[in-house]
């Protein structure tokens, strides 16, 4: 996704909220110490190897904090970057850079961390016909950005929210069965009332529920927290009739073994809820004093 198409009104609003949260009424330290007309040059450096994501959002933070700043993105989202590599240059007001610094880095390090972690999972299943997918376990308000970061790391987005996909999970099943509905009734009603373009996915916790979901006409079956042996048996039971998604308990230690069972998709909540941030920093120098 190009930077221009990705930065829309919702992202601009989010960046403004983040800047307001950090700056408040003023940047006291810079106001006290930094002359308002002091010009400077800044560069964002990556301090460890990883995959970049959030460069355009970081740029937007600088330009929103001070529209006079000139920002040049040197490495685009999805790029693999090395320790010590310069990924962005900023020129203009020193005070403006300082106001945006933390917010710009927060977006960049958080999203790059997700992209980097996703790339580790994608590499771990390399050569196997399986998709590494994210979940809805995202930071409130940051879902669109975090799912963008997953794509930059080579992963695939699951549904964006409750509005664009039908997944019948254990709580739905318990409530509907309390109304006297069978799983076949539940799946049929979902297919009748949902968009024709939407697949109906059903969560299954054991092989009996997999068989029941297949018989009910599910388009996709989610294998929830099953063992490797159970997943292999589920793949044999489905016999290619519908895609199977493995979910729950996935880590870098076991993702290859899960992929080798023959499932079509592996959803990994850790991509967005547990990825460590990539270490990045902003170095600012008075103009013409930057070290060569």
* DSSP helical segment count: 12
Characterize the overall form.
Answer: elongated
Look at the structure and give the mean pLDDT. Answer: 95
- Mind telling me the CATH superfamily name of the largest domain? Aldolase class I
Q: Could you characterize the architecture of this molecule?
A:
This protein is α/β, with parallel strands linked by helices and 292 residues long. It is built from 12 helices and 12 strands. It has helices at 3-6, 9-23, 28-33, 55-65, 94-124, 143-152, 170-178, 183-193, 207-216, 228-238, 255-259, 270-273, and strands at 39-46, 50-51, 70-73, 80-81, 86-93, 131-133, 166-168, 200-204, 220-224, 244-247, 265-267, 280-286. It has a 6-stranded parallel beta sheet. It is elongated. It starts with a helix and ends in a 6-residue tail after the last strand.
What topology emerges from the helices and strands here?
Blueprint: H1 3-6, H2 9-23, H3 28-33, E1 39-46, E2 50-51, H4 55-65, E3 70-73, E4 80-81, E5 86-93, H5 94-124, E6 131-133, H6 143-152, E7 166-168, H7 170-178, H8 183-193, E8 200-204, H9 207-216, E9 220-224, H10 228-238, E10 244-247, H11 255-259, E11 265-267, H12 270-273, E12 280-286
Parallel strand pairs: 6-11, 7-8, 8-9, 9-10, 10-11
Antiparallel strand pairs: 1-5, 1-12, 2-4, 3-5
Helix pairs in contact: 2-4, 2-5, 4-5, 5-6, 8-9, 9-10
Key traits:
six-stranded parallel beta sheet; four-stranded antiparallel beta sheet; TIM Barrel; 2 domains; single chain; Aldehyde Oxidoreductase, domain 3; alpha/beta
């Amino acid at each position: 996704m190009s930077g221009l198409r990705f930065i829309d009104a919702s992202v601009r609003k989010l960046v403004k909220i983040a800047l307001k949260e950090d700056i408040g009424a003023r940047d006291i330290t810079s106001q006290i110490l930094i002359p308002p007309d002091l010009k400077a040059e800044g560069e964002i450096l990556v301090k460890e190897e990883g995959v970049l994501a959030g460069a355009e959002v970081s740029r937007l933070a600088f330009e929103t904090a001070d529209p006079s700043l000139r920002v040049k993105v040197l490495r685009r989202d999805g790029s693999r970057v090395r320790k010590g590599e310069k990924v962005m240059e900023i020129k203009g007001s020193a005070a403006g850079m300082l106001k945006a610094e933390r917010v710009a880095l927060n977006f960049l390090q958080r999203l790059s961390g997700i992209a980097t972690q996703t790339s580790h999972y994608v590499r771990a299943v390399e050569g196997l016909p399986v998709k590494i997918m994210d979940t809805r376990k995202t930071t409130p308000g940051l879902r669109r950005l975090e799912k963008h970061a997953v794509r930059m790391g080579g992963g695939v987005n699951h549904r964006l929210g409750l509005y664009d996909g039908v997944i019948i999970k254990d709580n739905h099943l318990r409530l509907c069965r309390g109304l006297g509905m069978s799983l076949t009734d539940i799946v049929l009603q979902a297919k009748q009332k949902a968009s024709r373009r939407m697949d109906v996915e059903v969560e299954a916790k054991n092989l009996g529920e997999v068989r029941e979901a297949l018989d009910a006409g599910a388009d996709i079956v989610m294998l929830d927290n099953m063992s490797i042996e159970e997943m292999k048996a589920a793949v044999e039971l489905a016999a290619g009739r519908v895609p199977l998604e493995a979910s729950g308990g996935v880590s870098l230690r076991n993702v290859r073994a899960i992929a080798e069972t023959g499932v079509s998709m592996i959803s990994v909540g850790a991509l967005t809820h547990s990825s460590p941030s990539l270490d990045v920093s902003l170095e600012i120098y008075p103009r013409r004093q930057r070290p060569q």
